[in-house]
């Protein structure tokens, strides 16, 4: 998800473009079937500033937040912004399985549902684990020389030695 | 308690009257009143005359009874119970009736279309009326919860502006966070 910084929201350009478009049609008159496309209800996207959209998204369960991030570029940026992660609500319960696969399970207390979470950054399921504010810290059980900080939801991972 | 009248002027130059106690439900208005900047009419250039009466209606309902709404927020009368061993059961019942009545009022109050919802949310944000902001934000969230990105776009009149490649990536994310995928 590193490329997210390069996604620029250009909805204001869209508005400007639409306005120019309509006025052009007006000057040509009559060809104005296009006029019917103007929707009377303004889109939520044009009206609400980022901080209000953020507030709305925070009210959602985490799975809904991620799906909302697929709506358009601007929503995607908000969903992936650091602030939203910090502001997020009730923490998930997280645990390892006892299988050989490095898979964890997350419990969403709002939806009361379990999700299985792949943890590609760790090698075995018996690593030491600690968590804080949605981040999980892993340490390997053998040499105890590998330290990983990981966000199991976004699957971002950082290695500290 | 004194009920000084305050006058609010909407963006389209219409003046509305509100009791000071009610106006104090808005943090912004409260600061103006306490700061002594009150000079006859308070202009609200961001709130139109369509929305201002709706805002005033909310303030009237919530402005005067800060005490009891705090009680509700603290989970009813538990604190009173601790202080008074034989607490007033009648008062407890009355409080419950009040909470139920308020909920019913909120339900009726919140019955409006999307356009009003945005305007009211913006006004509540601008005037710092936390309760009203929470109500409107929650309503908007309920229109997103459990819906697919397509349904959300349709609901809110949003166009997807992803490139085809990004769109494919989004479908993967969407599938990954599909509720069907979870197990109980």
From TrEMBL, chain A:
Species of origin: Protea cynaroides
Pathway field: Protein modification; protein ubiquitination
Keyword ATP-binding: no
Alphabetized Pfam families for the sequence: F-box (PF00646)
Highest taxon listed in the record's lineage: Eukaryota
Keywords: Ubl conjugation pathway
SMART domains: FBOX
The name this protein goes by in its record: F-box domain-containing protein
Chain ranges of the F-box domain: 48-95
From TrEMBL, chain B:
Record region (Disordered): 69-88
Domain SKP1 component POZ, first and last residues per copy: 5-62
Keywords, in A-Z order: Ubl conjugation pathway
GO biological process terms on file: jasmonic acid mediated signaling pathway; protein ubiquitination; ubiquitin-dependent protein catabolic process
Top-level taxonomic group: Eukaryota
InterPro entries the record matches: SKP1 (IPR016897), SKP1-like (IPR001232), SKP1-like_dim_sf (IPR036296), SKP1/BTB/POZ_sf (IPR011333), Skp1_comp_dimer (IPR016072), Skp1_comp_POZ (IPR016073)
Associated pathway: Protein modification; protein ubiquitination
Location of the SKP1 component dimerisation domain: 130-170
SMART domains membership: Skp1
Glycosyltransferase is among the record's keywords: no
Pfam families: Skp1 (PF01466), Skp1_POZ (PF03931)
Family: Belongs to the SKP1 family.
Subunit structure: Part of a SCF (SKP1-cullin-F-box) protein ligase complex.
Function: Involved in ubiquitination and subsequent proteasomal degradation of target proteins. Together with CUL1, RBX1 and a F-box protein, it forms a SCF E3 ubiquitin ligase complex. The functional specificity of this complex depends on the type of F-box protein. In the SCF complex, it serves as an adapter that links the F-box protein to CUL1.
Protein name: SKP1-like protein
Biological source species: Protea cynaroides
Lineage, opening ranks: Eukaryota, Viridiplantae, Streptophyta, Embryophyta, Tracheophyta
């Amino acid at each position: 998800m590193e490329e997210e910084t390069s996604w620029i929201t250009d909805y204001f350009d869209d508005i400007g473009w639409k306005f120019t478009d309509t006025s052009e049609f007006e000057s040509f008159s009559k060809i104005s079937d296009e006029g019917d496309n103007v929707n009377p209800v303004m889109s939520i996207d044009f009206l609400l500033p980022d901080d209000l959209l953020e507030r709305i998204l925070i009210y959602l369960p985490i799975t809904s937040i991620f799906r909302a991030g697929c709506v358009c570029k601007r929503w995607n940026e908000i969903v992936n912004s650091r602030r939203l992660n910090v502001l997020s609500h009730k923490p998930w319960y997280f645990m390892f399985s006892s299988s050989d696969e490095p898979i964890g399970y997350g419990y969403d207390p709002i939806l009361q549902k379990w999700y299985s979470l792949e943890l590609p950054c760790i090698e075995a399921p018996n690593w030491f684990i600690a968590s804080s504010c949605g981040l999980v810290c892993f340490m390997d059980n053998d040499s105890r020389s590998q330290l990983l900080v990981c966000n199991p939801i976004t699957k971002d991972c950082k290695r500290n030695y | 308690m004194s009920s000084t009248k305050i006058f609010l002027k909407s963006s389209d130059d219409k003046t509305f009257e509100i009791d000071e106690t009610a106006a104090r439900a808005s943090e912004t208005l409260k600061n103006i009143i306490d700061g002594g900047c009150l000079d006859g009419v308070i202009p609200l250039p961001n709130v139109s005359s369509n929305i201002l009466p709706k805002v005033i209606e909310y303030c009237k309902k919530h402005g005067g009874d800060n005490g009891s709404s705090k009680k509700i927020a603290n989970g009813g009368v538990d604190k009173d119970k601790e202080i008074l061993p034989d607490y007033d059961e009648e008062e407890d019942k009355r409080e419950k009736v009040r909470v139920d009545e308020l909920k019913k009022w909120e339900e009726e109050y919140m019955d409006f279309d999307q356009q009003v919802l945005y305007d009211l949310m913006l006004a509540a944000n601008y005037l710092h009326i936390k309760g009203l902001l929470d109500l409107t934000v929650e309503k908007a969230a309920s229109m997103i919860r459990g819906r697919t990105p397509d349904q959300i776009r349709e609901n809110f009149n949003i166009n997807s502006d992803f490139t085809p490649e990004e769109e494919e990536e989004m479908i993967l994310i969407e599938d990954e966070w599909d509720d069907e995928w979870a197990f109980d």
